[in-house]
Request: fold
Amino acid sequence: MFELIKSLTQTYGPSGNEKKVAEKIKNLLKGKVDETRTDAMGNLICVKKGSGKKIMFAAHMDEIGIIVTYIDENGFLRFGNVGGLPQLIIMGQRVRFENGTVGVIWYEENIDNMKNATLEKMYIDIGASSREEAEKMVKVGDMGIFVGETVLQNGKIISKALDDRLGCAILVETALRNVETDNEIYYVFTTQEEVGLRGAKTAAFGIVPDMALALDVCDTGDTPNCKPMSVKMGKGPTVKIKDRSVISHPEVKDRLIRAAEKANIPYQLEVSLYGGTDAGSIHITAGGIPSGGISIPTRFIHDASEMADMNDVENAVRLLCEFIKG
Ligand code: CO
Ligand code: ZN
Reply:
């Protein structure tokens, strides 16, 4: 499964530009599902037909990044954020544009306190010496993503974009395992989650499932002096109780816990005070959709080097397979 994760995390796909990720997933699931469609928002919807309940699983294809707002006369790029960019950790990071151009994020050197180093005080250096030269490489409106190799070390994955290519990989793997069921399963790879859970909204409206789960990452409470949280990396995927965008439907939450206990799958209860997931827009679509989520405990979310445990990923696939059977 590591190769699948590596391939998905290294694919270019900032919000609104998820096409390459969608293509890759479509190819992986070719002939393995009964129907594949793409809606106007770019969501990739793969259906395994059935006569029972309509169950929707959502994982977002987009990743955070930067967008070029202005190119100065010396060829330096000014930029804004695409999704939540933690300003204090992006300095010195490399970004890559869709055409392969690489730039380095740096800051105006007259900043006396790094707390004042807002995005407006930063720039991207692509090594161009004039606006004309820079414009041959990058244009205003182009989006860049973090550069961050995908490494497997001692059972842990370190990579850019684990948020949420891990969720995508889990859905792909679950679909490939092809669990026997009467239920109709919608594997939905959504767009524009990082800018406001947007793709999932239209996807859910188009399907109106009986229940839905968002597959995503969540914070952990196991690093030095971090905020107290009971979730730990490596102790199992989480059953979401709430995040900032949703309070899980009790029946969905209970069905997940039942599934985990029946199959002896380790799990943790997740109460996230920060961050939202696709479940946040799915559950208030149409007349309301019972929703919940499974998350992979992940350290350093939205950094170029996020970290998660492969066992949690494998156990999330097992949990999803059990959930499908109901
Ligand atoms: Co995110
Ligand atoms: Zn996410």
The pocket of cobalt (II) ion (ligand 1) is lined by residues 163, 194, 302 (CB under 6 Å).
